[in-house]
Amino acid sequence: MEAVFVYGTLKRGERNHGLVAPYLHRVLPGFVEGFRLYHLPWGPHRPYAYPGMVPGEGRVFGEVLFLRPEALSLLDALEEEGEEYKRVRVRVETEEGPLEAWAYLYLGGLEGALPLPQGVWKG
């Protein structure tokens, strides 16, 4: 299983969760420290709104998805890994204790982005 920390459209109930649902083993709520969350509104280069997590002071809340390994290539394509997002390892605090998981950090500019100081994004 691969643990992936998600904080936006891949969370349960959000627009892209259905893409990973067939690979999903279980879900665990959690948060990461040392990151800030932004709302990225739709626009000419963004077909719908979604969040971006960047290093910084703060806490971001989301879910750890425990997925079959073949889901990572699907997520890399969705997140345009290496272009718009970078997949990195992060420490996630959960009710079962800390764990390491993959997360996607936003690489783009933050012009027009709205900070989410509570660290929670809802589509």
UniProtKB/TrEMBL annotation:
<dbReference type="GO" id="GO:0005829">
    <property type="term" value="C:cytosol"/>
</dbReference>
<dbReference type="Pfam" id="PF06094">
    <property type="entry name" value="GGACT"/>
</dbReference>
<comment type="similarity">
    <text>Belongs to the gamma-glutamylcyclotransferase family.</text>
</comment>
<feature type="active site" description="Proton acceptor">
    <location>
        <position position="79"/>
    </location>
</feature>
<dbReference type="InterPro" id="IPR009288">
    <property type="entry name" value="AIG2-like_dom"/>
</dbReference>
<dbReference type="InterPro" id="IPR036568">
    <property type="entry name" value="GGCT-like_sf"/>
</dbReference>
<dbReference type="InterPro" id="IPR039126">
    <property type="entry name" value="GGACT"/>
</dbReference>
<dbReference type="InterPro" id="IPR013024">
    <property type="entry name" value="GGCT-like"/>
</dbReference>
<protein>
    <recommendedName>
        <fullName>Gamma-glutamylcyclotransferase family protein</fullName>
    </recommendedName>
</protein>
<dbReference type="GO" id="GO:0061929">
    <property type="term" value="F:gamma-glutamylaminecyclotransferase activity"/>
</dbReference>
<feature type="domain" description="Gamma-glutamylcyclotransferase AIG2-like">
    <location>
        <begin position="4"/>
        <end position="122"/>
    </location>
</feature>
